[in-house]
Structure formats: C-alpha cells, structure tokens
Design a protein that fits this description.
Distance between the termini: 33 Å
Strand content: 35-45%
CATH architecture: Roll
CATH topology: Thiol Ester Dehydrase, Chain A
CATH class: Alpha Beta
Structural class: alpha+beta
Radius of gyration: 17 Å
CATH superfamily: Hotdog Thioesterase
Number of strands: 4
C-alpha cells in the first residue's frame, strides 16, 4: 500500500518536488484533485512485486518500452502487478550466449483499475 511517507521520501530521493506530489493545497487544483504518487515511484516500488530476489536466470534489466501511466495512484492505494512473457530471443555476446526476454507487466490498484503498463526487457541465461 502506498503511503504519504512513500511519496515524501521518493520526492526527497529523486529531487522531484512537483506540486502534484508534494503540495496538498495546490494539488487540489490539479487534474488529479489531490496529491498523487510519482509514476516512477509506482514503477520502482512495484518492481518488488515481480522481481525474483535470489540468484537465478535473470542477469540484468535491459530496459523498458511502451511505459504508460494510465491512472493516478494516490496514498492509500494498493498496487498489484501481473507479468507475462512476450518473447525470448537467443543472442551471443562477448561473454557468451544469453537470452533477451520481453515481458508485459500490468499494474492495477485495489479497484482492479489499470494504473500503469509496460514492456520490460531483461537479459537471462
């Protein structure tokens, strides 16, 4: 669940003090109607929902494609994610053979509304 402290801490860590994230009074007049979590906070925090922490086949994050923040995330919202494998490409690099995998991740709030969607790419063996 996203907390007020999460939003404040992310603003401090990222240096992103945009009023919609940090100023409750000014945010009332924004298109969101109140303070919202940073999109990149949602993306970063949600990584913990699908990243497998122990050593395994995934070696590194290769990047993101088609990232979209489709609905605001407010303090108090609970975010879940669902990831599905889109493709695997066998490659050979300077350190040997590897697989470039592509996944589609959808993030939803507690109401089942999609709040973000992205295609991720990672390197695996």
């Amino acid at each position: 669940t996203v907390t007020e402290a999460d939003v404040v801490n992310f603003a401090g860590m990222s240096g992103d003090y945009f009023y919609a994230h940090t100023d409750e009074i000014a945010a009332r007049d924004s298109l969101f109607g109140r303070r919202v979590a940073h999109g990149y906070f949602v993306l970063s925090a949600a990584a913990g929902l699908f990243v497998y922490p122990p050593k395994g086949p995934v070696l590194a994050n290769y990047g993101l494609e088609r990232l979209r923040f489709t609905k605001p995330v407010y303090p108090g919202d609970t975010i879940t994610s669902e990831t599905r494998l889109k493709s695997l490409e066998e490659k050979v690099g300077s350190s040997g053979a590897f697989v470039l995998q592509s996944t589609e991740t959808t993030y939803t709030n507690q109401h089942g509304e999609v709040v973000a969607r992205m295609t991720g790419r990672s390197i695996a063996r």
